[in-house]
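User: I'm writing a short report section on ligand binding and want a predicted complex to refer to. Could you take this sequence and copper (II) ion and write out the structure as C-alpha cells? A short remark afterwards would be nice.
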Amino acid sequence: MRTLISFCALFIAFMNGSAQTFNKLTIPDSLHGPNCTLRIADTFAQLRSGNQTITGAINGHTFWGPTVFVKKGDTIRMNVINALNDSTTLHWHGMHLPAVMDGGPHQVIPPGTIWKPYWKITNDAATYWYHPHLHEMTLEHVTKGVGGFLIVQDDQESALPLPRTYGIDDIPIMFTSRRYVANNQFAVQNTAYGDYLLANGVHDAEVTLPKQVIRLRILNAEIERSYNIGFSDNRTFYVIGTDGGLRDKPLAVNRLHIAVGERYEILIDCSNDELGKSFDLMAYNANQLFGFPGGEPAQNGQFGSLLNNKNFTMLHISIGERTTNPVITIPQTLIPFQPIDINSASSTQTIQVMGGAPNSPMPFHFMGGIFNINRIDKTIPMNSTQKWTITNSNVFGHTFHIHDVQFNIIARNGNASAVGQHEIGWKDVLYLPRNESATFIARFVDYADPLHPFMYHCHFSNHEDDGMMQQFVVVPPTEVSEDSIDFSSISIFPNPATESIMIDSRDIDLYYVSIQNVNGKTIMMLPQPEKGVPINVSALPKGFYSVRLTDMKTKQVIVRSFVK
Ligand code: C2O
Ligand code: CU
Ligand code: CU
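Assistant: Sure. The C-alpha cells for the complex follow:
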C-alpha cells in the first residue's frame, strides 16, 4: 500500500512536473580577498537545447563570474586580466574608491593586459557587483555575461543573527533575460529586453531551500526591465538591505520593485513550510504604470519581449531539510541608520533627462549633452555634501546611478514622504519613473583627483552606451602647487630583472605606472602603485620593457626601461 501511494505521488509529481521542467540554480563559486585574480575571457555556454551560445565570463565560468568576498577595512588587490579579443573595463559598482581604480570608461584594459587596481574597503557590508563599463561597448560586454557579485562583510553584519552560509541559506541571485537570434546566439543591438529569464545564468531555475529563514541577495542585471517581485503564495517577505548597507530593521512587504542595477537583500521565512512544498519567486510585471520598463505590450521588436507586461516565474523554490544551526526567526533590529543630515548640504546639482522622444533626433541623455569622454560635466569640491535632483519629464522610466558615493534618497517629486519605505537606507541606484523627480543627498569626502572623473548615468546599458551618461571630478579644496619636479633620480632596479622590479621614486608620488613591451603594447597597468612594494614581473617573457611613470602632482610623464 505504502509503495503504491508513493508510486502514485511520484506519478502525479511527474505529471505536474512535465508541464514545466526546471534546471538547478547555479551558485557562483567564491573568491576571497585581499588578493583576487579575475580573468575575463570569451567562452561558450549550453544555455538551452541546440547550439551553444558564445558568452563572456570570468575565471572559467561560462556565464558571469565568481563572487568576490572582501572585508571592510581590508585593502583589496585585484589582478584583472583581459583575455577577450576586445578592450574592456571592469567597474566595481557601488564601491567608494579612487576614480583611477574605479574601472569606468577611462580605465580601458587592452586585450592581453593585466590591470592592477587596489583600494581600501570602506563600504559597509552589503551586496555589490562588478561589470564592464567601456563606453559604447557596455551593452555588448554585459550581454555576453561578464560580471560578478562583490560581497562586503563587516563586524556589525557578522554580529547579527542572519543567514550567512553561502549558497545554502544565503543566496546571491543575478537576474537578467536574453533574446536569441539564429543558432542560439544572444541578440545585442536593438534589444531592450530578453525573452527568456536567466537566474545566475540558468533558464527556468529551481532551488531547494532549507526549512528555515533564507537570505536572498537579489541583483537586477537586466538591460532595462524592472521586476515587481513577490511570491506565488503571496507570502510576506522582509527587506533587510539596500544597495550599500543593511537597514535599521526588516521591512515586511509583499511586493518589491527592483530596477536595473539595484540590489535588495531580503529574508523569507520558510521555517513553517512543509518539507517538499514548492512555490515561486515571481515578477508581477503585468499592468504596471505607463513607462514601467518591461510594461510595453509588444511581444517582439526593439522594445517588445515575451516577458513584457506579464507575471512570470523567476525562481522555482522547493523546501528541503533544515540545516544544523538554522536561523528560524526574523531579527527585530539590524544596523542603526544614521542618514546624512539634510541641512548639511552646501550645494545642489540638477540633472534633467532629455531626448529619446518619438521623432527626437537625440537619444536619451542629460541636459548639457550626450556623453563626451573629454568633457567634465560637474566639478565637486572635496569635503562637500550635496543634494542632487534628477528630473525626468520624459516619455519613459529610467534609472540613475552615481559612482564613488552611497546616497540617501530624501525626496521624490520634492516630497520627503513620497520616498518608498524600502528605499530608505544607502543607495547607489534609484528608479526614476516618467514625469517624476528624485532628490538624493551624498557626501564627497576624499579621493580628490582633477584628472580622472567618476560617472553618473542611466543604468540601462543601451541608454548609457547611447550617451545617457556624464562625468564629475572631485577636486581638492586648494590648488596644489605645480612646482617643477626633478625626475632625474627616479630609477628602476634590479635591471636586468627576474622576478620583480622596484621603482625608486624618492619623494615623488606616482599617479600611474604602465609597462609596455618592445612593440609598444601595454601589458601591465598599475594605478597609484604603493611606494616600496615590488611589482611582480615573473609572468612577463624575457625582453626589453619600457615603463611610463606619471607624477601625481604635475601629471608629467617620464619613461624608464628595464630588461628581463
Ligand atoms: Cu554599474 Cu557606472 O555602473
Ligand atoms: Cu557603478
Ligand atoms: Cu535610461
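A remark for your report: The longest strand covers residues 35-45. Residues 364, 398, 458, 460, 463, 468 surround copper (II) ion (ligand 3) (CB under 6 Å).
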